[in-house]
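I have been asked to look over a protein record a colleague put together. Alongside the sequence sits a line of tokens, each denoting a local backbone shape. Please read both lines and tell me whether the tokens look consistent with the sequence. Take the sequence as given and treat only the tokens as open to question. I have pasted the whole thing underneath without changing anything:
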Amino acid sequence: MRIVLIDDDQLVCMSLKMILEAEGTITVAAIGNDGSHALPLYREHKPDVLLMDIRMSGMNGTEALEELLKEFPDAKVLFLTTFVDDEYIVKALELGAKGYIVKQNYENIVPALKAVHSGQNVYGSEIMEKIPDLMKTSDTFDYGSYDISEKEYEIITLVAEGLSNKEIASNLYLSEGTVRNYLSSILEKLQLRDRTQLAVFYYQHK
């Protein structure tokens, strides 16, 4: 797996590079020290995952993500940060970040990168605990008016709880392929891009 690392702390960059490459299956293709480096480095190296700090002195991580997704809408970005900042969490989720974990949990970084690379979304326990309370709620949403079936609604709730396709399939006694088909249909009906936006949508309309 090839990654690009963006962090404005040089010591953190060097430490992370050593930790990640010592694992054996990860290569740090490039390092940037400001959010403005994200797009040009992504263009040049086309990494499997972009690992990026969210609070930086120049362009911050969410600004960089917004710029990056305009050109590369399928980019996989995992935020790594010291700060569990409510405003940043909400913005990262709304934009479609694939994960958000805290730097202090070094042992979780490699598994999180592998999960994001395989198509999963990853949020640390500190983040998951905050998500329901952070999302703005509105009046009861009529999923039926969007032709969302009961089974599809079940899948939406499980996605919002952070379950993978495999876990959803096990819970609902379906095949993973069937779950993927359901998800594709749900995203099309609600005009959403990915499962992260679906989870945000669910909590906003809960």
In short: The two ends are 37 Å apart (CA to CA). The chain has a mean pLDDT of 85. The longest helix spans residues 176-190. DSSP finds eleven helices and six strands in the chain.
